[in-house]
Amino acid sequence: MFGWLQARGWSYRLRLKSNVLTDTGQGDETTTGALAHGVTERYFTGVRLFAQGVITNLGILHEDGHPEPWIIAMDAAPTRASVLDDAARWAIEPMFSDVKGRGFDLEDSQLQHAERLERLVLIMALAMYWCVRAGRDEGLNDPTPLEKKSRRRTTPRIGASGNSIVAWSRGSRAACAV
Fold first, then answer.
1. Is the pTM of this model over 0.90?
2. What phi, psi does 128 have (nearest 5°)?
3. Nearest to 57 by CA among 40, 82, 39, 27
């Protein structure tokens, strides 16, 4: 996957588990977990991952209150800000869940060729768009009793309404002074 992303020039941030085999070029091979052990922040460029030798950048950030560090492989220069960019993924996490086991079961497709996988992902994206759009339109045009109940009712106005003559008259300063 790294090679595929890099060949297309796509930006990426991929969170890694702590058991990924790594070579930073500074000694023996180790795991990402060993690199993250006992550090708050750590950044590497030109790291080799896996046995295939994928070259990427690596950022490690372990913030207070979090049980595990973030170990992020990325195409960008590894900095605190680029590691924190991974937090943006939570906005699309529900979509990933739909693509995986909770919905389309992409893992079970058994497709071998990238072109076929690309077509399947396109079809799934169109299907998801249609489902979300249909659900949104249904909710707006034909709400369930529970959806109707949750809408706020307008507060009755006291005094002149928009279609009253009083609302359109300019009044006089003498009347306002009283």
1. no
2. -65, -40
3. 82
